[in-house]
Design goal:
By secondary structure, this protein is α/β, with parallel strands linked by helices. The chain is built from 12 helices and 18 strands. The chain has a single domain, classed as TIM Barrel, CATH 3.20.20.140. The radius of gyration is 21 Å and the shape is globular.
Amino acid sequence: MIRIDHGRIIDPANNIDRVGSVYIADDKIISVIEEPDNFKPHTVINASGQIICPGFIDLSTRLRDMGHSRKATFKSEVLAAAAAGVTTLCLQPDTVPVVDTPAVAELVKELAEKAGYPQIYAIGALTQKLDGTELSSMLSLKQAGCVAVGNANQPIKNLLILRRAMEYAASHDLLLMFRANDVWLGNNGCAHEGVFATRYGLPSIPEAAETIALAQCLELAELTGCRVHFGQLSCKRSVIKIHQAKKYGLMVSADVAIHQLHLTENDIAPFDSAYHVLPPLRTEADKQYLRQGLADGTLNSICSDHQPHDLDAKLGAFPETEPGMSALETLLPLMLKLVKQHAITLEQGIACLSTNPARVLRLNSGALTPGFPADVCIFDPELDWQVNSQNWKSQGVNTPFWGQTLKGRVTHTLQAGKVIYQL
């Protein structure tokens, strides 16, 4: 039995925002505020001056391992997740081997158990080997524990294949996680088609590469009745299209990567590959519209889009480096920065990291509801810390925030009633 005392409890799912205690027994939440009868805790956590909220759910991560262990391993990255208050991770299917068979989905579970972090859910591959031509056996992937299907960053070869995939997914009530990106329009670009790319002569990606792919998928969602979650949107016109789709009753949801809410093409230090991400950092207007989309509920989740890399992957000319940031550990302080800048409320920020992703995945988590697994994050919103090798857990140090001082730090993380991180 665990009692978490005297913290400010924020639970958006149950409209709770008050100081009190949380009571945990048998790995589950048993009560919030009201003390149960005959409750004798063996552990008491003093959360005075801190915030108690549901553990965070990250909708898009790469943990490397399985073919890329030189970049990172499950063991290193779950330490980073625990230190970030993240209690559930969604693993993209572009591992080696690809998550396109039940055997690989089972391997993910085994690696998660070995790392002492069982709540890693695989996203199954939409097509075999992610080659975009032959459909995977989605039903067997669902039965093996995959929470959704998707093709990661890989293209579907034509719209008929995408239509058939969505029909298949819809017939088994499977969520499709779709990364809107037309690779042919993207043309191997590495930066937004704008001022920065022009100034430095970089191959660029127009926002139309995202919005055209998004519009096509929305049309097929209406045609097939498939539930679609659009991952890591990056521009104003995408937010407008999602808003319209929701208005007309389509079963769609969307998230944004945390770095897109803070950085634009204007922030990119010349030739610094830490800023090389896909989709690319876009304009100030896009950033502000993404923030507005979060505030009004058009975008309902924030993800880290965590992609740790080894040093070699980020050496070389900007276009030749691999895209992606190591982003788990900066997730909370960057969300709190949005709150400080009045882009969203603290309750909205916590909901975007917990309650809303749980609803997208239809998981019984993301809330401090009695009977739910005791996935809890406790953080001090005023604690300053520096992003450096002493504090950093991830094996990937590819972050543009290296050396910066950020505000807000997780002090305790509980996963299914077990303390997996303590500052």
